[in-house]
């Protein structure tokens, strides 16, 4: 197909092209660079479907003028172009090319992405599918404003807590530079900057597939499991952990339910980066429920727990020993 009906070009610019005509136009553009130049007027703005970020407004205006002149000359007397009606579409179209780029997925409808960043405060966001995200300080996410397509994809920098709306037909995917988490409906914490520079993903509820993007492999997480993507060893390690602690930054409160003294000690270790030893003199069969305020200092927390659980403690640097009173 060496020629194309000028009406298809005109309809395309006016946003009226149908699927069959779009397919014809796409095939025709792929035949040669000259064809794309003819439609888009200027190689600087359009080159085989790729945007040129250096194009200026002056060049865009010249491209529009060249485009309309070319089409106008080729139109027959019976089919004059009404330039006034399509100028606004062409202007929008050229800007879309510069911003959206990409080869033919209906170029006149670029995907619009939204980026949200948390500066000094935790940011709460509701996504187009009603999933909820809490961004920790300094974190940011970007996503398609409509979540159109076969998946719901979010790109992340920093740390965020996700509570995902279930939709088995449309997987929810969170990606960073080093890992991807694929979910159907779940609550999990994604920390791009975990300990030792590794990426950490903790599952609170649901089921989660975690994939390392640098040949670290793939794992399936279950509730209260944490995956660490080790960049040095190129591996993914998983361990059992009370994962609500990982999301404590969201509201500075760590709830626990029906946990024994050993499990509570593990929470304290995670929160305050200490080593807690539970003496055998304490009853580790009895369970407790409550809340730890993360912003409280460790002595305040231990005093509060000791009042309920009845124990005494000693602190030596980062080592804490809990024993019977």
UniProtKB/TrEMBL annotation:
<protein>
    <submittedName>
        <fullName>Anti-sigma factor</fullName>
    </submittedName>
</protein>
<dbReference type="Pfam" id="PF16344">
    <property type="entry name" value="FecR_C"/>
</dbReference>
<feature type="transmembrane region" description="Helical">
    <location>
        <begin position="86"/>
        <end position="107"/>
    </location>
</feature>
<keyword id="KW-0472">Membrane</keyword>
<dbReference type="InterPro" id="IPR012373">
    <property type="entry name" value="Ferrdict_sens_TM"/>
</dbReference>
<dbReference type="Pfam" id="PF04773">
    <property type="entry name" value="FecR"/>
</dbReference>
<dbReference type="InterPro" id="IPR032508">
    <property type="entry name" value="FecR_C"/>
</dbReference>
<keyword id="KW-1133">Transmembrane helix</keyword>
<feature type="domain" description="Protein FecR C-terminal">
    <location>
        <begin position="256"/>
        <end position="322"/>
    </location>
</feature>
<feature type="domain" description="FecR protein">
    <location>
        <begin position="118"/>
        <end position="207"/>
    </location>
</feature>
<keyword id="KW-0812">Transmembrane</keyword>
<dbReference type="InterPro" id="IPR006860">
    <property type="entry name" value="FecR"/>
</dbReference>
<dbReference type="GO" id="GO:0016989">
    <property type="term" value="F:sigma factor antagonist activity"/>
</dbReference>
């Amino acid at each position: 197909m060496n020629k194309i009906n000028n009406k298809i070009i005109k309809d395309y610019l006016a946003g009226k092209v149908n699927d069959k005509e779009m397919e014809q136009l796409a095939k025709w553009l792929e035949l040669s660079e000259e064809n794309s130049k003819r439609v888009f007027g200027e190689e600087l703005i359009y080159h085989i479907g790729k945007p040129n970020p250096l194009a200026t407004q002056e060049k865009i205006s010249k491209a529009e003028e060249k485009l309309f002149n070319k089409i106008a000359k080729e139109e027959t007397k019976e089919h004059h172009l009404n330039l006034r009606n399509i100028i606004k579409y062409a202007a929008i179209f050229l800007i879309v090319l510069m911003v959206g780029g990409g080869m033919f997925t209906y170029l006149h409808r670029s995907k619009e992405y939204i980026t949200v960043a948390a500066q000094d405060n935790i940011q709460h966001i509701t996504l187009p599918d009603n999933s909820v995200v809490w961004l920790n300080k300094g974190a940011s996410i970007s996503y398609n404003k409509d979540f159109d397509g076969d998946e719901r994809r979010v790109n992340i920098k920093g740390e965020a807590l996700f509570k995902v709306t279930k939709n088995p037909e449309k997987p929810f995917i969170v990606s960073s530079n080093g890992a991807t988490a694929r979910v159907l409906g779940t609550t999990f914490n994604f920390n791009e900057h975990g300990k030792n520079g590794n990426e950490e993903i903790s599952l609170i509820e649901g089921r989660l597939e975690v994939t390392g993007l640098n040949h670290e492999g793939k794992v399936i997480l279950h509730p209260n499991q944490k995956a660490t993507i080790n960049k040095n060893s190129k591996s993914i390690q998983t361990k059992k952990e009370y994962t609500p602690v990982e999301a404590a930054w969201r509201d500075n409160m760590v709830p626990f339910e029906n946990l024994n003294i050993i499990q509570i000690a593990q929470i304290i270790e995670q929160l305050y980066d200490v080593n807690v030893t539970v003496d055998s003199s304490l009853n580790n069969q009895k369970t407790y429920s409550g809340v730890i305020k993360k912003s409280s200092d460790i002595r305040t927390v231990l005093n509060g727990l000791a009042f309920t659980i009845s124990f005494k403690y000693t602190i030596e640097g980062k080592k804490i020993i809990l024993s019977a009173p």
